[in-house]
Amino acid sequence: MVLNNQITSIIRHSRTVLLINLLVFTSFSIISGQNAKEEQFPFDQKDNNGTPSFKERLFYGGNLGLQFGSVTDIQVSPVIGYWVLPRIAVALGPTYRYYKFQNNETAIYGAKGYIQFAVIQDLSSVIPLGGHTGIFLHLEDEVLSLNSYYWKWPNPFTSERFYLNTVLAGVGISQHLGRRSTLNFIVLWPLDNPYNIYSNPEIRISFIY
């Protein structure tokens, strides 16, 4: 069954409130215990040629979203990435989402890739606020497989599932937890959102190490 406007509104509102509360709680915890050094980011171990090794350029992580109650919304999206340059990172990985409202449920899965550009690697070098917070731009391309009957497309149904390709763009804030690990808060806007799968804006919290 197609998600009606009321269900979509509940999903967007509940996920946004949950993520914002988690961000506020985590940010205060991180800032209070921050003791990392600026020169350690994003990588500081170099080979004999004076450049970071391939292993040091790799990073792992992703985001996890959980919501239970009248609406169940579960999202798992791990990634593996690579620092092309100290300010530019690329990553890709699978994504899986599960929706359930009353007796209606559906699974959404696919893959995504993104590129991030660090506009400011350490905000404390510009404004002496303490801590190690960065600001970055984020551009993402996600391809999802959707159930044709649930989303009523295409009509008439030619296959059980169909694919939806969406580009999202936005900005993020990174908070360093250690030499290689960061917590990212990202706000994205989908350039096309025909099935209201995404919030507008889409708010995500991801962990990278």
User: Average pLDDT, to the nearest integer?
Assistant: 80
Q: Please outline the major beta sheet.
A: 8 strands, antiparallel, barrel
Structure annotation, total helices:
3
CATH topology annotation: Porin
Uncertain regions: pLDDT < 50 for 5+ in a row?
1-7, 27-41
C-alpha-based Rg, rounded: 19 Å
Helix % is: 10-25%
Q: Which percent band covers the strand fraction?
A: over 45%
Notes on the protein architecture:
By secondary structure, the chain is an alpha+beta fold. The chain has one domain (5-208): Porin. 17% of the residues lie in helices and 49% in strands. The chain has 3 helices and 8 strands; from the N terminus they run H-H-E-E-E-E-E-H-E-E-E. It has helices spanning 5-32, 54-57, 148-151; strands at residues 58-67, 71-85, 88-101, 104-120, 133-147, 161-176, 182-190, 202-208. Strands 1-2-3-4-5-6-7-8 form an 8-stranded antiparallel beta barrel. Strand 1 (58-67) and strand 2 form a beta hairpin. It is elongated, with a radius of gyration of 19 Å.
Task: Spell out the key features of this protein.
209 residues; alpha+beta; Porin; elongated; disordered N terminus
Task: Indicate the topology.
Elements: H1 5-32, H2 54-57, E1 58-67, E2 71-85, E3 88-101, E4 104-120, E5 133-147, H3 148-151, E6 161-176, E7 182-190, E8 202-208
